[in-house]
Design goal:
heterodimer, A: globular, B: Rossmann fold, 9 strands, AAA+_ATPase (chain B), Metal_Ion_Import_ABC (chain B), ATP-binding (chain B), ATP hydrolysis activity (chain B)
Chain lengths: 269, 227
């Protein structure tokens, strides 16, 4: 019944797109142990949203541009503060949340920025859907095209350099991909729990202890389950989908861990 | 094949240098072991040879088609990384722009690991991981193999197999091998020449002469060798 509403149809299409996009990017973040970069950038996107709204532009485009800049800034600072990644994240988080709070508290925003914090089904417009569709398709195509480069930079950066991979350039491109996944997801999932979409389905898939491609496929599968369950339940419970999606992601991860434990204890007998 | 001319290096480009006025000539088919105490500049020299660092003064001239690099097995401490042997080999093949998939099987066969394609890298033992890293380095038929402490974290039996394989690669296939080593037994058994680095300086010497001097000094109660 709920499928007869056009806002729900938009939300389902967008959810499906981000359920594919987020783990495609998230898998590389998780295996590089950069999950916190995803978290930082998702918070940074709030500044992009508020700046977009302030300028009267599409906030998703604003989030994408600002998060891309923050991603590139992290990559640049990573070469400067080589062994202090957490410090870099603090710098970027301070800058972006500082901008967001300043703009939002200025009283000059003529739109509700709160829906971007928690995610909302009702606010997905046709224009948003088109922006998210373009971002998702382009990003997934780039991941497919750079798959081996991204995999090797994550697995063995020095070997990638010796094989002639332009590691720094690919890292900058990857920052833009992360920004794209975040910008595409904020409408439905919201800024606060966005990193759950990026890292938790991957964390669940990694419990299966399979190869990289299988892990990626299961990450997408878990991601679809998480976000669709979150979306449908949020409709019936009349709550924001972001929070429910995060709870379901954690729940699914726990289920996978428990099944794995039971399986291994049965095998030991 | 490789000529190092008056090489000096420091990370900030100023004196004091980590490596000072190194001169080195390496011919095709030689097995060179680079030895020295911690902090002597072994790893820095290796990174310069790999092109990760640029000389502050002097030059490194290489006449080779491709370098195969075997990192220290301990650098692969992330055993949770979800990647199979085949995926690690196949992606590297793609990066090297080698079209033939057969090269994977051929390389794995060379190190006796052709049956491990579906295994996860994290499930392999130290010796098995090292063999896979050598197989990966052999893809694309490189003239030069650079190895960083190939016996670290590897059991004795696997060490023997690995060094036999490396020796075969120089004697039968004419590959040039440069290995940063701490395993003196392996150095003495395999190397044709030894490059002993001390306080950033060093020179290449014949392995047999080095061993004689080493034994003589040991008998005299000295730990160091001066040739």
């Amino acid at each position: 019944m709920m499928l007869q509403y056009s806002f729900m149809q938009n939300a389902i299409i967008v959810s499906f797109l981000i359920a594919i996009l987020c783990p495609c990017i998230g898998v590389f973040l998780v295996v590089r142990r950069y999950s916190m970069i995803g978290d930082t950038l998702s918070h940074a996107s709030l500044a992009g949203i508020s700046l977009g709204l302030l300028c009267g532009q599409n906030p998703i485009v604003g989030a994408f541009l600002f998060t891309s800049i923050c991603g590139a800034l992290i990559e640049f600072l990573r070469n400067y503060f080589r062994k202090y990644t957490d410090l870099i994240l603090s710098i970027v988080l301070s800058l972006s949340v500082g901008i967001a709070i300043t703009v939002m508290s200025s009283g000059k925003l003529h739109a509700n920025a709160e829906s971007y914090m928690f995610g909302s089904i009702l606010t997905v417009t046709k224009a948003d859907m088109l922006t998210i569709l373009i971002l998702s398709i382009l990003s997934v195509l780039i991941v497919i095209f750079l798959y081996h480069e991204l995999l090797y930079i994550s697995y063995d950066e020095e070997a990638a350099k010796i094989a002639g991979v332009r590691v720094r350039l690919i890292n900058y491109i990857f920052s833009i991909l992360v920004a794209s996944a975040i910008a595409a997801s904020i409408r439905i999932v919201g800024v606060l729990v966005l990193s759950s979409m990026i890292s938790l389905p991957v964390a669940a898939a990694m419990q299966l202890e399979k190869g990289f491609k299988v892990t990626l496929c299961f990450s997408i599968l878990f991601s679809i389950v998480d976000i669709m369950a979150g979306l449908f339940l949020s409709y019936y419970l009349n709550v924001a989908p972001g929070g429910l999606t995060a709870i379901i992601s954690v729940f699914l991860l726990l289920v996978v861990i428990v099944i794995k434990r039971i399986q291994s204890s049965l095998l030991r007998r | 094949m490789i000529t190092i001319n008056n090489l000096c290096f420091s990370y900030n480009g100023a004196q004091p240098y980590i490596l000072e006025h190194l001169n080195l000539e390496i011919e095709q088919g030689e097995y060179i072991s680079i030895i020295g105490e911690n902090g002597s500049g072994k790893s820095t020299l290796m990174r310069l040879l790999l092109g990760f660092l640029k000389p502050t003064i002097g030059s490194i001239v290489m006449n080779k088609n491709r370098i195969g690099y075997v990192p220290q097995k301990n650098d692969f401490s992330n055993t949770n990384f979800p990647i199979t042997v085949f995926e690690a080999m196949n992606s590297y093949r793609r990066l090297l722009k080698i079209k033939e998939k057969d090269v994977i099987l051929h390389s794995l066969q060379q190190v006796g690991m052709s049956e491990y394609g579906k295994s996860l890298m994290g499930d392999l033992s130290g010796g098995q991981t090292q063999k896979i890293l050598i197989a990966r380095a052999l893809m694309g038929e490189p003239d030069l193999l650079i190895l960083d402490e190939p016996s670290t974290g590897v059991d004795i039996e696997s060490q023997k197999e690995i060094y036999q394989l490396l020796k075969r690669l120089t004697t039968e296939k004419g590959k040039t091998i440069i290995a940063v080593e701490h395993n003196l037994e392996a150095v003495f058994h395999n190397s044709t020449k030894i490059f002993h680095l001390k306080h950033g300086s060093g020179h290449l010497c014949d392995a047999q002469n080095y061993i004689k001097e080493y034994v003589k000094n040991k008998e005299g109660g000295e730990d160091d060798v001066t040739i």
